[in-house]
Every structure is written in structure tokens, then in C-alpha cells.
Amino acid sequence: MSEAAPEEGTGGPSEGGLRRERAVRAAVVQGIVGEDRPLAGLLDVTGIRRTARALQSAFAPLVAEGGPAVRHTFAVRATPLVPVLRLLYEDRIGAEVASAAELALARAAGVQPGHTVLDSPTKTVAELREALGSGVLVDVDDAQELERLDALRGEAAATSTFGVRVDPHAGAERRAVFGVALGHEGAREWILSAFADRPWLTRLHAHSEVKNAGGVAPERLAEGVRKVYELAEEINAAAGRRQVDALALGGGLAAGAREGDTGDGDGADFAGYAALLKETVPGLFDGRYALVTGFGRSLLAGHGFLLARVEYVRAMGGRRLAVTHAGTRMAGHACGRRLAAYDAQGRPKGGPALAQDLAGPAQFDGELLASGVELPELEQGDWLAVLDTGAYGFARHQAYDSLTRPGIHGFAAGAEGVRFATVRAAQTLAEFVAESGAAHTRALTDDL
């Protein structure tokens, strides 16, 4: 069962929760949302910045004096929005990109090549050729990709840095989808041979399994890093020199038990994870290896929410069904996700909680955002906030039923009030029609 946004301990909402309440009220008053704008995504800029700085602070004390610093990157797939990437980059968070389009987003945000990691599992020859001389950090996924690089390196000089992505947990019991499965028969020997034959391979990337929701247990992440660290030590021992000089630690950390309160005391435990890495892999921070992280969900999830108008409330099967503009195609099913109710003026909704179902706007049977969630009684014109959607949420809109993309807005709540900045404008009907082939209306009737 989904839950309403809980109150902090003994004193009401957290600091992040208070910022959210002010932002909802201001969004209604200022017309960011309304009857003609029934859905918007809101990003808490203060929370994002605090989280970025908390990540920096967690790892900085562990770095050996005089050794290479830890370089942090953001998994662009989590929130592929240029202003977000720029905000993070100004707080020294680079970009981890998994496609040519994500690389273009990072460039548009001004992220420098040396702060960009490219690790798409489907790099084309053209993408590899461009990457070769771009200066970005490239992680190779398999033997065929490495063969392509061998051929391309014969055509032009390389300015980029190259390594191999390894799935340290994949083996007989779990198949790998990305990277080289370290537990598969012959995989370790192939990696050792690949590095021995190519002195220009200088990185290893630890990639733990991808989860559709939540994160990977920190202990499992740290164990994966340990395995890849030991592989680097083996490669260097065989080479008789420090050939592998950089380790990408990947991401995968959950955003915290209380999404959205990072920086206020209850978000992603970056300091705990860094300490766990230090304990599990003692040599990791001794100054011999440059380190790169690639967090996504834990940086942004709790600092974004969808604000959706309650359009109708129906009696269905003896229970109230609130039909809103926030659906599963954007927010995912809200099982376990926090929700918050506001009245038509954007004020926190009062009254006793009762079990209600929440439906989204799309016409398919699975469009039930939440079932039996206990919230104050929702009415037409109220507002529902679907929390913790700042990563892998509203930025990956799918246009089922030809639903247009909502606007995304950042907000800062200060003493002078709440200010908003457009991150992505709402998609207009004209833009949607144009995107759907209007310029080629007669292509199938006249051109064939």
C-alpha cells in the first residue's frame, strides 16, 4: 500500500517537506499549475544542491593526500534535462552518458569531456569514431566493441581514455546484460589478455545489476567494487606496472529511507557508503587509483515531485476513485511511494484519512497509480503530489494515449517567497502534432 507523506518525528514536516508545501501553494497561486495546466513536475533546487555537496563531503576525507581526487558523475538517464545537468556540474558533478543523445545533452550543459563517462552498451561505429578523439572517458562493453576500437584506432589518434565495464556479480546464477560478466567461464582470462594486448586500456568500471526501482544493497555494491579492484591489481601485477590507474565505482545506491530529505538528515547515506568502501576495499583510497562514481537516483529522486490536479472522484466498487493527471507511465506504480494531498488552493489537505484508489489519465487497465492509499478525502479540484519522482520519473514521459509532456519547473523557496524557473516547457498540442508526422501527412497516400 502506498502511504501519505509521513511527518518527521515530533515536529511536523522536515525542512524539505516545508519547502515542498510552500512550492505547491506558490505553484497554484502563480499559475504554474491550474485548470488548464493540470500537471507539472517540480524540482527542489536547494535540495539538489545540498545532496551534491553531501556526496562531495562524504568521499573527500577518504582520499589520500597528494593522490587523485574522486570524480563524481550523474547518470543522465535518471533525469535527462540540460538545466539539471548544468546545476549539478556547477557543483562539480559530471555526466555518465549511455547514448549519443545523452552525450549531446551533457555537451549542451557545458560538461567538459574529461568529466564525461560514455558507457552505452550499443555504441555504433560512428559513435566510437567520434568518441575516439573527443576526450571523454569510454568504457567498453564486450569483445566485439573492443575489436571495433582496434580498427578505429588505426585510422586516427585517440585523445580519449578507455577501459572495460565489468559486471562483478554476473555468473552462472545471474546473466549479465551490460558489461563483461566476471563470473562467466573464461571471462577473467579474456579481460587479462585484452589488457595485456592493449596498453591503452587503463580503466575498469564496476557495474552492479540494474534495478527497476530502489537501489542495490550497499554491501553488495561494495563487494562488487572489491572484486573489480582485485581484478585491477591482477592486471597491474601481470603488466609489471600500473596500467589500470582509474576505477569507476558505478552507482546503484538507494535514495534513502526518507526520499527527499537528503541534506536534512535522512536521505542517501553517502558517508556511510564511502566508509563501507574504505572498510571493504582498504587499498581503494590509498592514492594509486583515480576514482569515479556514477550516482543517479540517490542524487535526485527525492527532490522532484509530480503535482497533478484531481479531475474527477468516482464511487467504484464501494470505494472512492480519484482520477488525476499523474499516471503510471510517468510516475510508475506508487506502491511504497509517498503521496501528499493538497486542496484546490494548494494548502495541505486536512481531515481524517480514508482508503482511496488513484487512477491516471491513460486508457489501459493498469493505469492505477495506487490502490487503497490512505489520504485525506480527495475532491474535484484538489492537488495530488506524487513524491520521489525527481529521478526515473517525470523526465521519461511516454505518450500513451497521445498525452503531451508536462512542464518541468525548478523552485527555490527563500525568505522573499518561492521563485520558479522553467526547466522544460510544457509540450503544446501543435508541437505534439508536428512531432507525430504532420509535415508528412500525405506521405503514405501520395508518395508511394
Automatic annotation (TrEMBL):
Residues 304-390 form the Orn/DAP/Arg decarboxylase 2 C-terminal domain. It holds the Pfam family Orn_DAP_Arg_deC. Residues 50-297 form the Orn/DAP/Arg decarboxylase 2 N-terminal domain. It comes from Streptomyces evansiae. Signal peptide: none annotated. Its cofactor is pyridoxal 5'-phosphate. This is Diaminopimelate decarboxylase. Keywords: Pyridoxal phosphate. Residues 1-21 are annotated as: Disordered. InterPro entries: Ala_racemase/Decarboxylase_C, De-COase2_C, De-COase2_N, PLP-binding_barrel. It comes from the Bacteria. The lineage of its organism: Bacteria, Bacillati, Actinomycetota, Actinomycetes, Kitasatosporales. SUPFAM superfamilies: Alanine racemase C-terminal domain-like (SSF50621), PLP-binding barrel (SSF51419).
